[in-house]
Design brief:
2 domains; 5 helices; MBL_superfamily_lactonases; Metallo-beta-lactamase, Chain A; single chain; RibonucZ/Hydroxyglut_hydro; Metal-dependent hydrolase; hydrolase; alpha/beta; metal ion binding; 3-stranded parallel beta sheet
Length: about 200
């Protein structure tokens, strides 16, 4: 998430909603520590809590792509606005491509949206879930050519979206949208070129 520590300039530009906070919600649920944080990418709205000094997150192992960590440390003129100033952090496990994290969780390197973007696949019982990060930030963005304006490689985004959609359709996976306030999750049908969504509960 976006985190809960903002300077005056950040608040003026982005107007973050301080009433919703992942750290507070997790604490209220009785969770006292987080072992791993798997980041789809390190843009500020996805990695805010990853660099928190709170007891809940400070000992967590961050899992991200090596390419993404390099992009975060050394942003260019196009990507600089998407990352906060580099903060040194121990316990970062970097990956070089797709990897199975456990029997239930795997990551698939996609690039496209950012240099080291990855999606996360989760298996719980007989259900499959796909957290698409900002390759699929909302239901609107399910179509391969519906991209965000800040994708560093739009062609790569479109090609990887088709591959992920093919997988989601064949596995009847539930896709989770992190930037959609109306449709949080949906199953995908149709074809990768012409996907259709069916809203469903997680």
């Amino acid at each position: 998430g976006i985190g809960n520590k903002f300077d005056e300039k950040f608040v003026k530009i982005f107007e973050p909603d301080k009433s919703v906070d992942a750290e507070g919600q997790l604490s209220e649920s009785g969770i006292k520590n987080i072992d791993f944080i798997i980041l789809s990418h390190m843009h500020f709205d996805h990695s805010g809590h990853a660099f928190s000094s709170s007891d809940l997150f400070s000992k967590s192992v961050i899992i991200c792509q090596e390419l993404e960590l390099k992009a975060y440390k050394n942003p260019n003129d196009f990507t600089r606005g998407s990352y906060v100033k580099y903060q040194n952090r121990k316990n970062i496990l970097t990956l070089d491509g797709s990897r199975r994290i456990s029997s239930e969780i795997s990551v698939i390197y996609t690039g496209g949206h950012s240099f080291g973007h990855q999606i996360i696949k989760i298996k719980i019982g007989n259900k499959r879930y796909i957290y698409g990060g900002d390759l699929f930030p909302s239901a609107f963005h399910v179509k391969p050519n519906h991209l965000t304006a800040i994708d560093v490689n739009p062609i790569q985004s479109m090609e990887m979206k088709k591959k992920i959609l093919k997988m989601a359709i064949s596995e009847r996976a539930i896709m989770i949208f992190n930037h959609d306030t109306n449709i949080i999750s949906a199953r995908i049908s149709g074809t990768p070129e012409r996907p259709e969504i069916e809203q469903c509960d997680i």
